[in-house]
Amino acid sequence: MTVVLIEMEGGLIVFTAALLLFLSPDVQGTAHLSFSNNTQVNITRDGCGVSKLCVETPDNCDPSGNSCLFASAVSSVPVSPNGVDLTVELSGESAGYIAVGLTANASEGTSMLVICAQNSSDNGKFLFRTMQRNNTNNMLTPTETRVKEIRGMVNGNMIKCEFMVPNVNASNFRSSEDTTFFVLLGNGSFEGGVFGAFNVLFSSKSLDLTKPGSNVPTTTAAPTTMPNNSGALQPHAVLLLLSVLTLSVLLRV
């Protein structure tokens, strides 16, 4: 069902296969990808808002530290009608799993959910899954998603992973071709081979994944000149007043 090419380089395991996951609900606990933790994954804020789109909770937290749930996305150039290839970084703390979701509507319809987890029943090995989330009742259903270049690690409760999802297009969720999504971040439990409910800890506004700065606040520059109707005397008015005063003094003399 799934072919994984594992290449050993200097003791690190590098996953370069394209994975096609098809998981039915009745095999949810066993049909997943579980890897060793030898892969090193380094996730930072470098490039946020410039070369990659970043979301996190709490605001501006550091993914290299603790108590930060962070995700970034780098998009390829859109190719109609295929959408974009999306390279994602995900980092956070959980005794179960962390996940990032993309959806066209955060309150209805479905989300594409990508899960990075630790398998406590298998010595805390890194575990990878894709799910479909019902945004109305939070039901998780295994789904078929093509994912490439998966790398992940678990250190205590810290989980970090990187992966690439080809051909991401919101037309899968609505009628028009688009690269605009709401991004969800959250976590959940993983016990006895079963993924618990997805706890949404962050939900973005609608973001264009092809624009790294689409969630960077914009500021409005203060005006450099006073408006003419502000009540303040303008330079030409001051000159006219001085002329009148000078003429008045001359007439009195």
Structural overview:
The protein is mainly β and 253 residues long. The chain has one domain (6-42, 52-208): Immunoglobulin-like (Sandwich). It is 7% helix and 44% strand. The chain has one helix spanning 235-252, and strands spanning 6-9, 12-15, 18-21, 33-35, 53-57, 69-75, 84-93, 97-103, 110-119, 125-134, 140-142, 145-155, 158-168, 180-188, 190-191, 194-195, 199-208. The strands form 4 sheets. Strands 4, 8, 9, 10, 11, 14 and 17 form a 7-stranded antiparallel beta sheet that branches. A hairpin with a 2-residue loop joins strand 12 (145-155) and strand 13 (158-168). It is globular.
Order of helices and strands: EEEEEEEEEEEEEEEEEH
Radius of gyration: 27 Å
**What fraction, in percent, of the residue positions are helical?**
under 10%
The CATH class name reads Mainly Beta
Question: What fraction of residues sit in β-strands?
Answer: 35-45%
Individual helix count? 1
Compute the average pLDDT. Answer: 76
- Counting structural domains, the number is 1
Q: Which shape, going by the Cα principal axes?
A: globular
Low-confidence regions: 1-31, 173-177, 220-227, 235-253
The secondary structure category is mainly beta
Main sheet makeup = 7 strands, antiparallel
CA distance, first residue to last residue = 108 Å
CATH topology: Immunoglobulin-like
Total strands: the figure is 17
Organism: Pagothenia borchgrevinki
Keywords: Membrane, Signal, Transmembrane, Transmembrane helix
Protein name: Ferric-chelate reductase 1
InterPro entries: FRRS1L (IPR042789)
